[in-house]
Write the structure tokens for this entry.
Amino acid sequence: MDTAESQIPAWAPFKSTIRGAGDFFMFYIRFVKETFKRPFEWREFLVQCYKMGNRSLPLVLITAFIMGLVLTLQTRPSLVNFGAEDLLPGMVSVSVIKEIGPVITAIICAGKIGSRIGAELGSMKVTEQIDAMEVSAINPFRFLVVTRVLAATCMLPILVIFADSISIFSSYLAYNIHGEMSLTSYFTAALSKLDWIDIVPSIIKSVLFGTAIGLIGCYKGFTVEGGTASVGTAANSSVVTASLAIFFIDMITVQVTDIL
Amino acid sequence: MEIENVVSIKGLSKSFKEKPVLRDVNLDIQKAENVVVLGKSGSGKSTLIKCMIGLMEPDEGEICIFGQDMANINYDELNRFRTRIGFLFQSGALYDSMTVYENLAFPLRHHKKELGRAKLDELIHEVLDNVGLPDAGGMMPAELSGGMSKRIGLARTLILKPEIMLYDEPTTGLDTATAKEISQLILDLQRKYKISSLIITHDIACAKMVADRVVMLKEGVIVAEGSYEELENNNDEWIKSFFS
């Protein structure tokens, strides 16, 4: 007997994924177009920058502090065995600035910022607040989406710089549990191993992470259909998709940096 | 004297996935006229006003507002028309992250940038007075009752001084006394500002109170049109079932 499930074609999930990717691409194109239209919603942009930066900073700093501490404590014994303890500050700074700092910060922000945007816009959609904005002749895409995506794009690199700095500082504290080095000497040693080719791609990567988190959160929230249950799904989906996107972008930027 | 139609809808049809929701709807609204569209749930009432304000695109037909065919204008032009049309949502649709004052200031900050703080305050207090909630400015939407939310939603649309008002189920979910107050408010606004209104409802008491003309919608088709009294005395069984 044919059940309803058996009647669904095997390629249906692929079709739906391709359609979703197409919709997201169109959403991105609209974002680019609307970004360059005037007037720009400066007030809302600054409010979003404040909310994203200020509210994410404590969590980012705590995580970065622990990250630097753990990395140093776990790596130190191996380096001591090889008599290469002096390389520790440089190794930590390169690892943190090139990879761990941006990725961990972005993952935290995908949870904190992405879910907030997805839930906020989703809730506004199902309660007709977005339609209310539309009928008031206020472009909701420009007001809600452009400002949030740009705020996430601007705030991510700033949060990453804070995270990197606090990680190296906590690494200094961890180093001084067994060894002894002044803060200035530690930072000098750490930064001496860094070149622009380490820092610039990391900043570019952070910008891309921010854009991805903002865009995915806004897309999931803005395209919610149905009732309040779908708001939770949008928030959850924002986090999952943004986290995957972060690893994907990371993989590509690492490859590109290697080629350069 | 020639009658001035502010809204003229001709042959409007709309379907959702092959299911027709509106079929060949023709409707005119004159200046300062209150037209009530009566119909049961799912008869296409909300779809009709959403097509009028551009939230939905009709499949066929023509919607002319102030003599302009809405199908032949771009998004910016549509927005210029939207500032002349007010829309009251069933839920009020207040921005829940803003206070009542900020909800009312929001459209003004976008469309009347030249206004100073003092003038902004004056306009906000004027509309709050008009809807009978002069002290609600500092409240959050979550603190408002259903009737208060609708009044504030109405105040938010009135603040731009619209020439046409579209009401989506203005009395649904309210107790009889509050529903009567909202109906009276619709009447007062029509008299005070000469606003043309389209009121979507299935509330007979509201229709009786506010309607200059009643249009009855059944499964997306206009089946009757006339004054409240004319339709009340109609012999058609379906229409009678509404008024009994």
